Fold this protein.
Amino acid sequence: MIWDSILGLFSTDMGIDLGTATTLVYVQGKGIVLNEPSVVAVKKGTNHVLLDGQAVGFEAKAMLGKTPGSIQAIRPMKDGVIADFEITEAMLRYFISKVHKRTWGYKPRVVIAVPSGITTVEKRAVRNSAERAGARRVYLIEEPRAAGIGVGLPVEEPTASMVCDIGGGTTEVAILSLGDIVTSTSIRVAGDEMDEAITNHMKRTYNLLIGEQTAERIKIEIGSAYPLEKELTMEVRGRDLIAGLPRRAIVNSEEIREAVKEPVDAIVQAVKLTLEQTEPELAADLVTNGMVLCGGGSLLRGIDKVIAEETGLPVRIADDPVAAVARGTGLFLERLDFWKRYLEGEDESA
């Protein structure tokens, strides 16, 4: 314990939203101090990170789809869980050292948000990666609980608080009461599936092959889940599947809305399934309390209106929805003594 206290003097405890698309880090007293893509560039065929870890985050994402044969840009997280253990470890080490602004002597306590539906083996992989990356203690918190705390819902009170976190790899829907999750649904359909649907639409409709960064840009610039007052258009450039030459096409928001309909419908069904499993008294609370959307996927135009129409509940998008889970992990860490009974760390002493 004495050694632990000494290490604590030199380390900054942090909450981490280890997302499929983006990693955010929250530090007590400072808020969100890091928000970078969960992408790492490595030498092809190896796990050697380029430039001693500098090709991580924004630098690595800029390389997606544009690397020469000797370099590969990898997203080590898939569907909210670790797909590549070594690369995830290298990414975490880089982000933790970047927050500390030094490469020695840091041994922080870390709270990491994980999808509520992951397995024990997947949880162990997250914990081991963080420990090997330099954390002295690792605690896991379910993403919907972190989101509820992060958006300021009264999760500790005996009333229903409902949150829907639409990330890159997973959508987490949960109803919370008295500090715990009463019922939840976790599906591996979220922003990445929307991007994939857009990519497939461009292939089928225009015989145009586009990269994942272009698909994401289409989603952000003209994507929607609900009819817009003024429909949008966008020029898209890619490679012609027949001629093999660069080409452009003009697409509009109506066709993109139709393209992402399937993943949006899956998210709506996850919300409905969660509501169907809710106790009557808690369901009654939701008529007034409604639900809060967060995560990057909640920024898709009109998704709140679609969910509100399908459920009949009030739906709002959180302020700064992308940072909600990371903020929740930080607030959880700040009140570690209070939340101790909910910890999923192997060592639950604070």
The chain has four domains: 1-35+85-151+322-350, 39-74, 153-189+263-321, 191-261. The longest strand covers residues 180-187. The mean pLDDT is 89.
